[in-house]
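PT: before anyone asks, these are the final sequences, not the draft ones from last week. 988 residues across everything. Please model them as a single complex and drop the result in this thread when it's through.
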Amino acid sequence: MPDSIEKWDYFELTLNAHTSGNPFLDVTFEAEFTHQHRSLKVSGFYDGDNTFRVRFMPDVEGDWRYVTVSNLDALNGQTGEFICTPASKGNHGPVHVTNTFHFSYDDGTPYYPFGTTCYAWTHQGEALEEQTLKTLKEASFNKMRMCVFPKFYPFNENEPVYYPFERNAAGEHDFTRFNPEFFRHFEQRVGELCQMGIEADIIVFHPYDHWGYSRMDAESDYRYLRYLIARLAAYRNVWWSLANEYDFMLDRKPMEQWDEYFRILLAKDPYNHLRSIHNGDTEKNYDHTKVGVTHVCIQNWDTKQVKRWRRDYQKPIINDELEYEGDIVFPWGNISAREEVHRIWIMVTNGGYAGHGETYMHPQDILWWSKGGVLHGESWRRVAFLRKLMEEGPVGGLTPMEDSWVWTRVSGGKNGDYRLIYFGEHQPLSWIEGLPDSPDYEIDIIDTWEMTIRPGTRRIMKPFKAITGANPEPPRYELILPGKPFQAVRIRKR
Amino acid sequence: MPDSIEKWDYFELTLNAHTSGNPFLDVTFEAEFTHQHRSLKVSGFYDGDNTFRVRFMPDVEGDWRYVTVSNLDALNGQTGEFICTPASKGNHGPVHVTNTFHFSYDDGTPYYPFGTTCYAWTHQGEALEEQTLKTLKEASFNKMRMCVFPKFYPFNENEPVYYPFERNAAGEHDFTRFNPEFFRHFEQRVGELCQMGIEADIIVFHPYDHWGYSRMDAESDYRYLRYLIARLAAYRNVWWSLANEYDFMLDRKPMEQWDEYFRILLAKDPYNHLRSIHNGDTEKNYDHTKVGVTHVCIQNWDTKQVKRWRRDYQKPIINDELEYEGDIVFPWGNISAREEVHRIWIMVTNGGYAGHGETYMHPQDILWWSKGGVLHGESWRRVAFLRKLMEEGPVGGLTPMEDSWVWTRVSGGKNGDYRLIYFGEHQPLSWIEGLPDSPDYEIDIIDTWEMTIRPGTRRIMKPFKAITGANPEPPRYELILPGKPFQAVRIRKR
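LR: through. Structure below.
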């Protein structure tokens, strides 16, 4: 009986081979996986202790065969087969772009990203990492932005448990020799997120570093990226985020190098996982129209620009740093919970998506945004509430309302007969724009902060003579609203 | 003994003359006023009942003489003199631009505009107009945006008490014949504002009209503007605002006509009163770099753009419609009081200015923004508080802080050693940017909503190793803040 693997899980082939040189440099090793007329080439990798592995994520049920190719005899020409069985409940496959501006899992289930950020959570040791996972079980995030490399930055002064490269006694790295223990640990965390239905938005490079990981030469960068792909691409929940704040590394990694990373991902990731790159300076967005970029990952506090980004890039927009809820000294990490929720609602109701973050001062410097731990703020529950609303809505995301100047001031999105209008800082006592004239609609009034939903009431509006004349025919209806800020309206056909 | 007139009050010469035709069209009448080597030509006007008047506001103390010139013998060659005496307390003269981005009165007293809008308040009848004046006495506004013409618009369906032109029994206007009663009433209100220290920002044209005032031909427009100048320019508190929402009238008044209005003001207003023009669509700012424009009057909810406007126009910026506090159905009139105060603080701390407005639903449609009456909201008191702070600060306005990316997210302005930092939606527990290192400064923490001011405390900051190393020399100080939104900090040299 051949092995059986659930669709979108991964098959792993392990082979042993001894090599006298540097197995990370000297050994080529890949496998070709074939189902009927379809075959994919997948890179293998060295995992230490004379062990080589190749991982493959099948996306079609049925029989798969493989054959290995290597410059080492022990790894060459090995064949085998396995059966790909149906995906179990909760396994929807990887996420891809759908309908230009949105996402869905490969099984067609819509995916609305409501992520959070814990940049360095996998570098904090067992106790804190387990606490982070526990928190994630209780929260409702479905994406995690996380760096491969550890972070050296304010509130991040601790050394990691594992280092990604071999180090000698003097602490000098050998960038040609990966530390398999580091990557096994990182993979374990990615796999645990996968089990919880959380996409791992893996940040490949970042500038906050005192180990030299952001200053490796180009060849070492490319080798590292290929190694990451070989190890991690078979995890269905992997997204590639080439950088946190690529523009802060242009002194070390010029623009053509960033383009080359995208080309490596395009060439080496057989599953075409999502690919993005994240700016630091709000004036220095990457050119997200480039073909390697699947979706726009942006840092910008000015969320009301979302319609412009949609227009400019024609790809899904995720604003993953619209500033974090918190109280630290840095302005990117000290907005109020209300403001955090407000900005996320603006992004989503205008047909974009947004990421959560939290940076409250902590006596041991355990800030969620970097180290994980527990959530201290008030926005995360409201994000969960909004996610639920979106998932209860029609399939696919929202298209921003654009038929009137009103929607430059108030946020509104639609999908077929469905409307989600967000008033934010506006507090009208009644509303008319974007409402259906027919009674065949259910209208709910949503308090985005209190997380309440109650049926809305309409009444015939007192006409504005200067606009409609004294007795407009047919009469116009207005929706009664509570006259306080941070309200929303949901309109659904009965 | 010749008459005596206080500086910046006006001298009025009244002459009687009978004319059989249309005195508004047929009679030319002006006077030249001379003090030593200086002389100014001033247009006179017909005030009905065979009465002609010419008004003159002297700006230099001492003897002034005049001689009239007219095509009517009775109005020609009349001479006289008067003495200009020192200005009394509270009379600072007209307001002009100073230091590129700011304003002061002619006597050098700084003027920080904290205005409000009651578009049609002079058209509401004695009782309501007196109530408006009473409210203004209690509030702290020092500028009023007000239309000459009445307004036809939602919540404005009443006819005015007076019409600006003669009307026949059928209600048809004769645009060649002004109604002196209308203008006498309007002047009275301008004069009453002047006595209260309130600048009258007089809106010459606006589109909200069912009488035809926005659709007169160009010649009638020019005649009307010249008549306004002749009647009103001698009031020291007059500002000319050529339009509310000029871009909504481009179908009726093409761009060259707007330029011509500015040329008429430049030619006919001997006192060079402030001149501006106000957009409707936020994408359709007038080209405020044009020479006739003394300062930028803008409508834009996105107050964080103020530094861009300063850079683009190099003139004082007043955002007079950053949306109004209220709860009406239109998004320009339903932001929360907190948001109104927030936007005004952003404008001011970034070296601009802002106008207040209020649009709460009212059973008799008496909304402050148009009809006046009483204030119902909560922002006006906070505007008064901010005005007081500005007036307690150093002479001249603020220059925005620009030396760090921090100031793209948090608002800060400076003037010499003085700093005013506004955190808005940010709620840090401590702060370092823009603080002096020396102890010779008084630092206050201001709650912009609660209107409290209390001394701030500084402490040596725990260093961020990743930025400064473990023991920076000299140590850096941080200011302790309350960790809640809508706070500000004032820094003054002892």
